[in-house]
Amino acid sequence: MANESRPCPCDIGDRFDYGGRGQEVQVEHIKAYVCKPPAGTDKAVIVIHDIFGWQLPNTRYIADMLATNGYIAICPDFFVGQEAWKPSNDWASFDDWLKTRDAGKIDKEVDAVLKYLKDQCGAKKIGVIGFCWGGAAVQHLMLKNPHLKTGVSLYGVIRRFADKHSLLHPTFFIFGEKDDIIPLEQVTLLEQKLKENCKVDYEVKIYPGQTHGFVHRKREDINPQDKPYIEEGRKDMINWLNKYL
C-alpha cells in the first residue's frame, strides 16, 4: 500500500531533454501549450498534466506525439499560475500543497479551453487524457462534462473519486502492475464498480512490471526492459482516441 503520510510519492522519473514543437498561448485566465498537426483537423485532445505541471518536457512530448497522430493537442496550466510540485520539495508538505490544487475543481478552466478549441481551432470532437493528478481529473470530467467525447486516464489516483463510477463517455484506464501509489486491489475494485455501474464503454488495463508514470516518465531508450510496455501504453492511448474521436 502507498504510504498515506506520503500519498503521492511521485518520482519525476526520466526527465526528457525536449524542447517542444508547439507554442504557448493565453486562453482567458490561463496559459496553455498548443501543438497542431501538419494537416487541418476538427479533432482535439486536452492533455492534463501531473503534479510536475504543464511545463514538464515529458508532458509536452506526449502532446506533440498526439499532434503527430493528427490531433490538435493542448496542455493548459491547470494550477493556474501556482507553482508545480518540485522533486526537491518536502513530501511532508504535499497535503497542504494539494489543497489548493484540486483535480475535481478544474471545470472553469476546462470550459475556457473548450471554448478556445472550438472558436480558435475549429475543433468539433474533443477528448481528454491525463497523468496521475491529471488522470484523476480525467475521471472527474468523464463523470460530469457533456462536451467531451472520450477520455484516457493514465495512472489516475483512484481514491480521489473512489465512489463515483457512472461515466458519461467511453474511458480507458491505464495502470502499472508495480505502481506504489495505486495498489492493485484499488484497480480491481474500480473494475468491479465500473462493471456494476457503468453504461458506456470502458477498459481497465494493467501493464506488467510497470511503475507509476511509465507511459510518460520513462524513456524507452534508457529503460529497455520497459520499452515494449511504454510503447504499448502510448499506442493503446492513441488507438482509444482514434476509436472515439
Instruction: Find the CATH topology.
Output: Rossmann fold
Q: What is the CATH architecture annotation? A: 3-Layer(aba) Sandwich
What integer is the average pLDDT?
93
Strand order of the largest sheet: 1-2-4-3-5-6-7-8
> In sequence order, what are the helices and strands, one letter per element?
EEEHEHHEHEEHEHH
Structural class: alpha/beta
Question: What number of structural domains do the residues give?
Answer: 1
CATH level 1 class label: Alpha Beta
Name the helicity range.
25-40%
- Using only C-alpha atoms, the radius of gyration works out to 17 Å
Shape: globular
Proportion in β-strands: 15-25%
Query: Biggest β-sheet: count, sense, barrel?
Result: 8 strands, mixed
Question: Termini, distance in Å?
Answer: 36 Å
Report the count of strand segments.
8
Ranges where pLDDT stays below 50 over 5 or more residues in a row are 1-6
Number of helices: 7
Subcellular location: Cytoplasm, Cytosol
Protein name: Carboxymethylenebutenolidase homolog
Family: Belongs to the dienelactone hydrolase family.
Pfam family, one: DLH
Question: Can you characterise this structure?
Answer:
The model is unreliable at 1-6 (pLDDT under 50). The chain contains seven helices and eight strands, in the order βββαβααβαββαβαα. An eight-stranded mixed beta sheet has the order 1-2-4-3-5-6-7-8, with helices on both faces. The protein is an alpha/beta fold. The longest helix has 18 residues, at 227-244. The protein has a single domain, classed as Alpha/Beta hydrolase fold, catalytic domain (Rossmann fold, 3-Layer(aba) Sandwich), CATH 3.40.50.1820.
